[in-house]
């Protein structure tokens, strides 16, 4: 099982908006780049719009960034598309057998580790700007 692809798609969408800021970024155009359905793009754009990262208005062709890429972190994007709730990256099975010593103590034993691991991942995402991703794309291949 993996984390929802919404996060990667959102990074893709925002990178495309930056690299094609002179063009018209319709959901169809973006969907073609992502290779998905425009409905998926509109849903993600709605989340990014709500988070103040991208502007997309129903019935108006063309989405755009609302902040410079130098001010958007991967953590901002991660949170915008609601990949996981706070302290919920790792699931712990519910209802272990409390008659068993392992079942009785497993949750308390691993929850702090899971919480720490999620915090470390989020700290890493907070250090990477969308500008870094866009720069790597430009260095590799340029714009669309």
Task: Detail the topology: elements first, then pairings.
Layout: H1 6-19, H2 27-34, H3 38-50, E1 54-55, E2 64-65, H4 74-80, H5 101-126, H6 130-140
Antiparallel strand pairs: 1-2
Helix pairs in contact: 1-3, 1-6, 2-3, 4-5
In summary, what is this structure?
The protein has 144 residues and is mainly alpha-helical.
Mean pLDDT: 90
* Envelope shape: elongated
Q: How many β-strand stretches?
A: 2
Strand content: under 5%
* Largest sheet, spatial ordering of strands: 1-2
Commentary on this structure:
The structure is a single chain. The chain has 144 residues and is mainly α. The protein contains six helices and two strands; from the N terminus they run αααββααα. It has helices spanning 6-19, 27-34, 38-50, 74-80, 101-126, 130-140; strands at residues 54-55, 64-65. A two-stranded antiparallel ribbon has the order 1-2. A hairpin with an 8-residue loop joins β1 (54-55) and β2 (64-65). α1 (6-19) packs across α3 (38-50).
